[in-house]
Write a structure and sequence with these properties.
- There is one protein chain.
- With 319 residues, the protein is α/β, with parallel strands linked by helices.
- The strands form two sheets. Strands 1-2-4-3-5-10-8-9 form an eight-stranded mixed beta sheet, with helices on both faces. A two-stranded antiparallel sheet has the order 6-7.
- α4 packs across α8 and α6 crosses α8.
- The two termini are 33 Å apart.
Length: 319
């Protein structure tokens, strides 16, 4: 994940930023198995591995991780294919997996699996990848309850030096589906979902600390105006579960501070997309360092985040 500070956020608050809070719905929670912390532990260990850091120079490790993802998804009965592309003469690949539920439209759930530099990248972004995999496992069991088909996409080259370039795996994928954008109901990007600490003082871009909680024990749903409903439904599901606080941030796409992960590339093609995040370096000081390790993650709260996404998608079938 790559965050860019925006020095003028405080003056934009009154016009552009809205914190939105929803009361509990009268909907009943659908039937679904909860996310498994044991499964998440295994996924995280496999993604991080022991062979080396999965950065853009270590193509062998990127290939190992993408092959493992493809096989894991196959075990859930979800077929995958590689989306291959070349950068500076080297080959890279996204993993694109499709859960067909008999519908004409679809949603996309994605996360990037590469890291920045010589880091393990537990939170950034093994946590997001593990979250997508566990979401896929649960939804494969609940296929008949889905309102849409679901594509699960695992991206490469999200980190510098490729961030905000056309070499990002998410740009490659977003461009490839632009002709289908009328059928894409939304994109959910999981970007760092594993770091929580209710005792620390949560940091924010300039001005936002007056609007949002001081503690670091919530999950954030970040969207633009086009993807407003995605964030609303996700936080609604989280409030129905009543396990982990959910905070929303909504702003126009053109504000650069909002363009902090793979969702930005879907915005470029006019596709509604949101990011689910623990807020990265505004909370996790291990961000982009060797200290971003498995022992720093709260896997139980990761499971809560995933359950919220699962229920958000299943509740759409009741609308």
């Amino acid at each position: 994940m790559r965050f860019k500070h925006h020095q003028n956020l405080s003056c934009l608050l009154g016009s552009f930023f809205v914190a939105i809070f929803f009361s509990a719905s009268t909907w009943a929670l659908p039937s679904a198995s909860p996310a498994s912390t044991d499964n998440l532990q295994v996924y995280l260990e496999q993604i991080m591995g022991e062979q080396g850091n999965r950065h853009y120079k270590n193509i062998e490790e990127l290939q190992r991780v993408s092959a493992w993802i493809k096989e894991q998804m196959r075990l859930f009965g979800i077929p995958c294919q590689y989306q291959n592309y070349s950068v500076n003469g080297s080959g890279y690949r996204n993993v694109v997996c499709t859960l067909t539920a008999g519908h004409a439209d679809k949603v996309i759930v994605g996360a990037h699996y590469d890291v920045f530099g010589e880091t393990q990248g537990a939170d950034d972004n093994a946590s997001g990848v593990a979250g997508v995999i566990e979401t896929a496992r649960i939804l494969a069991q609940q296929k008949s309850q889905l309102a849409h088909n679901v594509d699960f996409v695992f991206y490469t080259l999200a980190e510098p030096p490729f961030f905000k370039t056309e070499q990002m795996g998410s740009f490659v994928h977003a461009k490839s589906v632009q002709a289908q954008k009328e059928q894409i109901q939304g994109v959910y990007i999981l970007e760092m979902i594993g770091y929580f600490d209710e005792k620390l003082v949560q940091e924010y871009p300039a001005g936002l600390k007056w609007v949002y909680p001081q503690h670091g024990n919530f999950i954030a749903a970040v969207s633009n105006l086009q993807s407003y409903d995605l964030g609303a439904k996700y936080c609604q599901a989280m409030r129905m579960l009543d396990r982990l606080e959910c905070q929303r941030l909504v702003a126009p796409s053109f504000i650069s501070a909002m363009e902090v992960s793979d969702h930005l590339n879907y915005w470029k093609f006019g596709i509604p997309a949101m990011m689910i995040t623990d807020t990265a370096f505004f909370r996790n000081k291990h961000y982009h360092t060797a200290a971003d390790t498995l022992k720093t993650l709260n896997i139980g709260k990761m499971a809560n985040v995933i359950d919220g996404l699962v229920y958000s998608l299943l509740l759409q079938a009741d609308e």
